[in-house]
Specification:
mainly alpha, CARBOXYPEPT_ZN_1, two-stranded parallel sheet, carboxypeptidase, metalloprotease
Length: about 170
């Protein structure tokens, strides 16, 4: 890919052991730079401390969930280890909009009805459910903006004039 504009600023993360070498190179090439974050690890440690101090029992309703903090995998599970899982991917074929809508509906059902719906609660107490709501985002976008009946992804195929790949067949 060719650069769009040579004057566009970029952010890079440089390991501390390479910092002086990179600075020297930029100065030699007359490339202006500024250091935005001197020590990223300090910021990551502060973030981790904040997460640990805000830790509360795993929420069981959407009203209990703290959206202002990051959560680990335990906060998204009803507990247990080495449990069987159910994988649901929706939106594989971009024109099949009902699958994305069904996946979104199911996600809401899981979080609102756990503890209220006996059958769902029994499943979640024994299994983990993994949801992938939009498996083919570029194709899905394309069906909303260009070609409603498009099925595949939108990535060009090298050596071919055909665009896209059927994500569950190729």
């Amino acid at each position: 890919m060719e650069p769009i504009d040579l004057s566009t600023p970029v952010d890079i993360r440089v390991p501390f052991t390479s910092l002086q070498t990179v600075k020297a190179f930029l100065e030699t090439e007359d490339i202006p730079y500024s250091v935005m974050i001197m020590d990223l690890q300090v910021m990551l440690d502060e973030e981790q401390d904040q997460m640990l101090s805000a830790r509360a029992p795993a929420p069981r309703t959407t009203n209990d969930y703290d959206y202002s903090n990051y959560h680990d995998i335990a906060d998204f599970s009803t507990g247990g280890i080495n449990r069987p899982g159910i994988w649901l991917d929706t939106g594989i074929h971009s024109r099949e909009w009902i699958t994305q809508a069904s996946g979104t509906w199911f996600a809401k059902k899981i979080v609102t009805d756990y503890g209220r719906d006996a059958a769902l609660t029994a499943i979640l107490d024994k299994m983990d459910i993994f949801l992938e709501i939009v498996t083919n985002p570029d194709g899905y976008y394309y069906t909303h903006n260009s070609n409603r009946m498009w099925r595949k992804t939108r990535k060009p195929n090298p050596g071919s004039s055909c665009v896209g790949t059927d994500p569950n067949r190729n």
